[in-house]
Amino acid sequence: MNYTTQQKLTIxxxxxxxxxxxxxxxxxxxxxxxxxxxxxxxxxxxxxxMLTPALKEQNKDSLEKYLKRLEKNExxxxxxxxxxxxxxxxxxxxxxxxxxxxxxxxxxxVAIVGSRRCSRYGHEVAYSLGKAAAQGGITxxxxxxxxxxxxALMGALENxxxxxxxxxxxxxxxxxxxxxxxxxxxxxxxxxxxxYPLGTPAYQSHFPMRNRIISGLCDMLAVVEASVxxxxxxxxxxxxxxxxxxxxxxxxxxxxxxxxxNKLLKEGARIITCPEDMLEYFGKGWVRSDPExxxxxxxxxxxxxxxxxxxxxxxxxxxxxxxxxxGALAAQLTMLELKGVLLRTQGSIYKLNRSKxxxxxxx
Amino acid sequence: MLSKVxxxxxxxxxxxPVTVETYISGGLFxxxxxxxxxxxxxxxxxxxxxxxxxxGFEMPNTRxxxxxxxxxxxxxxxxxxxxxxxxxxxxxxxxFSALLRGTVFIGELSLSGEIRAVxxxxxxxxxxxxxxxxxxxxxxxxxAEVRCIEGIECYAPDNLRQLVxxxxxxxxxxxxxxxxxxxxxxxxxYYTDFSQIKGQHAAKRAMEIAAAGSHNLLMLGPPGSGKTxxxxxxxxxxxxxTFKEAMEVTKIHSITGCLDPGRGIxxxxxxxxxxxxxxxxALTGGGMKARPGEVSLAHNGVLxxxxxxxxxxxxLEALRQPLEDGVVTVSRVNNTITYPARFMLIASMNPCPCGxxxxxxxxxxxxxxxxxxxxxxxxxxxxDRIDLQIEVDAIxxxxxxxxxxxxxxxxxxxxxxQRARLIQQERFKDSGIFANAHMTAKEISRFCPLTSDADAxxxxxxxxxxxxxxxxxxxxxxxxxxxxxxxxxxxxxQHVAEAIRYRSLDRKYW
Lengths: 363, 510
Hints:
By secondary structure, chain A is of the alpha/beta class. Chain A is built from 15 helices and 14 strands. Chain A has a nine-stranded mixed β-sheet, sandwiched between helices. Chain A has a three-stranded antiparallel β-sheet with strand order 11-13-12. Chain B has 20 helices and 18 strands. Chain B has a five-stranded parallel β-sheet. Chain B has a four-stranded mixed β-sheet with strand order 1-2-4-3. A three-stranded parallel β-sheet of chain B has the order 5-8-9, with no helix packed on it. The chains are: A alpha/beta (about 375), B alpha/beta (about 500). The interface of A and B includes residues 146 and 256 of A.
């Protein structure tokens, strides 16, 4: 990557510990020539004397070293001044570190966000929204945290979609550690974005600020599940400030994880009751294929009937409803799980796969 | 004069003969014990002297030397009080008896001359029988444990005086009556019966399979779901102890002195549940004298570890060798001893720190990282050695309130388990193993042929459920046991499908 001298110096400036985005903004506005910042770092009217020693330490070598490090990590630095179409949102940072497909950032997309501690329902919905976006050719933007974020990203990735994950830490860090593999896949099939220089750990305070980039890059923000007091609320307020459209997935009114989204709906957010609602906003239709018809034997059909009024059933409840010996029940459950009729949620609780249709096999 | 008497000492679970020699010579009074005696053996001097005097005999007032041969092996405990006293009486000319030769003497003396119980009598007597001894004198307190040993006459006199009169033919003593071996009724010790547990049919079925094939079992579930109660009910469905197994168990329990004096021989499968603060040596055995630990005390029975992740990592990892080999080797400065330790491991744990992950009762409040960290306390290789993994959820109030008791009794389950065990005993009669759980790769390929349906199902399960390779042999073993419970020679798809259900944890958690 070829940077101009000014850009190189900006990169070096941003890499200094303590040079946070607000300080960077102020310095860049005070000194039109970035080299002046290094030159005048020890002058009495320099606004951030605590940065002086670090600034004075920098030289050509340290710059080259840092640029090499960026190159080794396959990171491109984008600048607000040279990429106005990407940094078109309010409160955009002066620069972004990007790994992967840089083009993707200017194309917009849907941001799918929500609680880290999501319910099975939230996980499923986030996944299906990610999948629908992939099929509609819409980029999915999210935070890369556990729960809704990961589910949406996985839904898109596994169906050949493009995704962007925005980090609240340096690109060479991984948080949560369990998502290492996911992030590696995103770097291949999408973009990883961060406003923090290499080596910045995942501080809690970074995440609310990170959220403005998520909302900034998207066209529409879709909140799947969020409690009233959740980090997602900062993303929503950023989106409001940036004038982005906000949509929510309604949830069970007794579920804590849906109270935030239901509240937003009450306040006038768009409602997403199916993936088509989301696609419609982007002007894309989606022809839902008819669910495949699965033929089941009478014993197997008993299980489908058992779920007529229940969403989830535990092992003992199933045993009661289907009136089977525990051994035979265990065997049947495995068979039905392999057929994709039953889904096993956390623990030994089963759910019917409602995306399929079931009929009794004719004898 | 010199007098020789035979006694026994223990090395691990086996006894070896110790010759107690006493030599009385002229000179000033002195009393020396040689032959690597420990403190308890050295102290026997005072007990022997007092017991001899209080039994109406005379303590020689000259130079006494007691030698315990072989002289290079350590002698421990108070077992030698009685043989020393007898040989001393013989050496001092107060006791002439042809019975001294060919009789094994074991016992501690009280100051008044009474014969007191000691630990490890049963393994000593078994070794004495093997070495060709036909007669033994043991403390009355240990009489119960030798009742089933045929081929050696055991006498249990109350005190030294009685014993001397018996040896001199002045008194008739009848040997301890032999009782034919009969497996005990575990219900009389373990109070929880399966019929007392409401609901939990899936867990009970898993217990039945575990008991039938001697498989290890891990239960995950929220607090209050009945994991402990289920585990406590397990002994009531375990197959009967065979005589050979009972002997092995009693030997170990005799050494550690935890035999019930009234019952003597251990006739039910042991159930050990050490607290989670137990150290690694407490579980595997150790201490200065390399004593057997909980894994050996649970030999041929059940080791129940409640709150599995709360045990120290060291203690848990120490279980790996005994789980694999069925024995545990304890090495200490003084001794290296191999104890048998073929036990069924039953472990229970919460699925997460708050306990409610995957429960229908309450929402879990833990983050995925917290759950990972909690489960990470139990290492993968250890979980790998646990064949069956099941989830236990709390049961509903309706089920609890259900007055009708149509739960199956332990007796009925036990009969099925017993039948499955008989099939296994027949199958493995030449291979040195007893149950399906102990099959190695060689035996699995020989005894676990799958029907083509079953094979196809297993393949499909591996592909679509993302099972780990290590689950493969476990599933085959469990399927074998399920087929045995049904009395089926072939392993069908049905059996494999059920077995997969009990392995589902390793695809989700670990």
